[in-house]
Amino acid sequence: MALRVAFIGLGVMGYPMAGHLARAGHAMTVFNRTRGRAEGWVEEHGGRAAATPEAAAEDADIVLSCVGRDSDVDAVTRGRSGAFGGMKPGAVFVDHTTASAGIARELADAARSRGFGFVDAPVSGGEKGAQNGQLTIMCGGCEADYARAEPVIRAYARHCRRMGEAGAGQLTKMVNQICIAGIVQGLSEGLSFARAAGLDPAAVVEVISKGAAQSWQMENRYATMLGGQFAHGFAVEWMRKDLAICLDEARRNGAPLALAALVDQFYGEVERMGGRRWDTSSLFARTEALRTGKT
């Protein structure tokens, strides 16, 4: 069923996600901090561009956002001219930002007090997943809010699941990032070891990817890693932001994150190599620099 839908934040992920919603037939209103990007989206997909998040949210059945950090989410929801000021009773706000569980719970409480719903719904799958409508989405919120939002989210999701109450989506995304950090570091060390041993790393991957070592990172990143190509994908600075959230949460819940903390330090070294905007697979650049003595 076509709904009145607003989308806030038309970055690398949000732009194609909003595009899928337009193609699904929803009446779209979009907002982006850079006005020209919102106007360009409207030229491509139709709908209208709003001047503020509040204006975008007015009369919308579902409002979605995909921005950068906790502070950005707070600004577009509860800040001056924020979306919460324009939302009608019974609507649902869905936040796709990777943020803290704390801000998700705060916003869920604020939404409830104003008569509308909130779902925290961080995504996994990267830019390619957003473009292809193949994202994995992990959600937190009450069952009723999720039930209203899920059919809309399906426009760009390969898999979508409610994980629990508010904040559960963000906590699940933390698990995702913790696992990815270890996998990429392991792959970096394995490829570097293959070179040091005089093996053909590509041939090694062709063999071991058919066994228990297989991973999405191996299948999709080994070739670019071996080619020293890191100008794509999820940037190191954003991964460090995510790992900081994970480590902060772990300090509260007591979970030991020794490997995640170590990999975060390694990403700090990558940043000092000039790789702040490199893809997260650039851990391999650090490993190779150590192997060849070019640090």
How would you describe this structure in keywords?
295 residues, N-(1-d-carboxylethyl)-l-norvaline Dehydrogenase, domain 2, six-stranded parallel beta sheet, alpha/beta, 2 domains, 13 helices, 14% strand, 9 strands, elongated, Rossmann fold, single chain
Sequence stretches where pLDDT stays below 50 over 5 or more residues: none
| CA-based shape | elongated
CATH architect. name of the largest domain: 3-Layer(aba) Sandwich
Count the domains.
Answer: 2
Largest beta sheet: what is the strand line-up?
3-2-1-4-5-6
- Sheet having the most strands: 6 strands, parallel
Topology:
Blueprint: E1 4-8, H1 14-23, E2 27-31, H2 35-45, E3 48-49, H3 53-57, E4 62-65, H4 70-77, E5 92-95, H5 101-114, E6 117-120, E7 123-124, H6 126-132, E8 135-140, H7 143-153, E9 157-164, H8 168-196, H9 201-208, H10 216-226, H11 236-253, H12 258-272, H13 283-292
Parallel strand pairs: 1-2, 1-4, 2-3, 4-5, 5-6, 8-9
Antiparallel strand pairs: 7-8
Any overview of this molecule?
The protein is α/β, with parallel strands linked by helices. The protein folds into two domains: 162 residues, Rossmann fold (3-Layer(aba) Sandwich), CATH 3.40.50.720; 121 residues, Orthogonal Bundle (N-(1-d-carboxylethyl)-l-norvaline Dehydrogenase, domain 2). Helices cover 53% and strands 14% of the residues. The protein has 13 helices and nine strands. The strands form two sheets. It has a six-stranded parallel β-sheet. Strands 7-8-9 form a three-stranded mixed β-sheet. Helix 8 packs across helix 10, helix 8 packs across helix 11 and helix 8 packs across helix 12. The radius of gyration is 20 Å and the shape is elongated. 44% of the residues are buried.
